[in-house]
Amino acid sequence: MADKFILALDQGTTSSRAILFNHAGRIHGSAQQEFTQIFPNTGWVEHNANELWTSQLAVAQQVLREQHLTAADIAAIGITNQRETTVLWDRATGEAVANAIVWQDRRTAGLCDSLRAEGKGELFQQKTGLVIDGYFSGTKLRWLLDNVPNARARAERGELAFGTVDSWLMYKLAGVHLTDTSNASRTMLFNIHTLDWDDELLTILNIPRAILPQVVPSSGIAAHTHAEFFGTPIPIAGIAGDQQAATYGQACYHSGMVKSTYGTGCFILMNTGAAVTSQNSLLTTVGWTTGHETPHKTDYMLEGGVFMGGATIQWLRDGLGLIKNSSEIEELARSVPDCDGVSFVPAFSGLGAPHWDAYARGTMLGLTRGTRAGHIARAALEGIAFQTADVLTAMQKDATLPVKELRVDGGASRNDLLMQFQADILGVPVVRPEVTETTALGAAYLAGLGVQFWTSQEEIATQWHMERRFDPQMSAEEKNQRLGAWARAIERARAWV
Cα angle vertex 443, ends 442, 445, to 5°? Predict the structure, then answer.
């Protein structure tokens, strides 16, 4: 089987991608297609569910065609997806009854406020590991049932199906209504301790159980594609939400291992083994369930999200015009030896974990007549690293596990200056792998494990190779001084009103 490939379908927020991986975990070919972003009202974000499907199928077929491969060359398919985005469709026709509501959508904020006011917050956290927030799928589904004509009545008759994007793709590819534990754990409807939909939470949100997908392990053959798409059926043997898949692709298989993805925002996940309830405003989530063991083994994660990662650099480019391309940020930041006392808190849309302050705003402090563009650029990069360090500090308090290293991926992880400062301010090594397409790689690994393309996580872990290691170089005195200045800057950002 070593001469075959794994096909990873990476259905993201702005594009659908298909990437082929060989037995060594290396990329053999890829294809990508962007799709329409829909903003019908302020704070609303939607996707055309059919466009998600057609773009994903198109790139899957394209990459096989371009690499002169057939279904016979593919050992399995793995699916990874934008999490929390919510689709509701007709079981009979397979057509969505409305646009998908995207994870970024804020239309259910009022419903979440009401649930919190009713004192439901602790119940939801205990059962789901999540805070009550419109970010998650449950309130989006409630909105669809309440606002799409006849949707609730049809749902109660069992005519409609709900799913996150992985479920939607499974239904279209294979005609089955499934999700995996990692995606189910992001819905606010799933009990992460019993690994089943929770009737009490369904009652609170007024969601009929009949529309929910069956929950299966993240690794293991779940279905086979319809023959019409690739000529002959291909097993679908891996499913995971994008951040969990990236953690799997980084081979964070043991308690205390952590990865940070530096994308538009930053997502930091720590493998805790068993479920740990956060006392420091982090999320507890299922990482993955591997189906090749009996009984199935589920690994849990602590997760913290930073709203403004690479988006901070985009603002320097588009908002201030300090750079023409995002790649220029490192050179500009290196034009000065330090920040010259400038602190930059990029809280443009509030602060995420562990602060959770929706009213905080972007703040720049310490400006003088001597401040140059390079100082602002350097302070912006450091602001990304400081936010990540805040999450890591909270994780270590919750998990009581020492962090030995931080594995990094995502576009901004290629910035050496940022990665060095991240190591300095954390006081632990930052390690960048050779393959940074870790989301698709994680889906491929889960699928390959599910068909014994790879025999074990231990074998997969040997394929993780370091491209560069950044060791801490900052003195303890300077580190503490810088962290103190950051804490004061956070206070100012939160007190702007």
Answer: 65
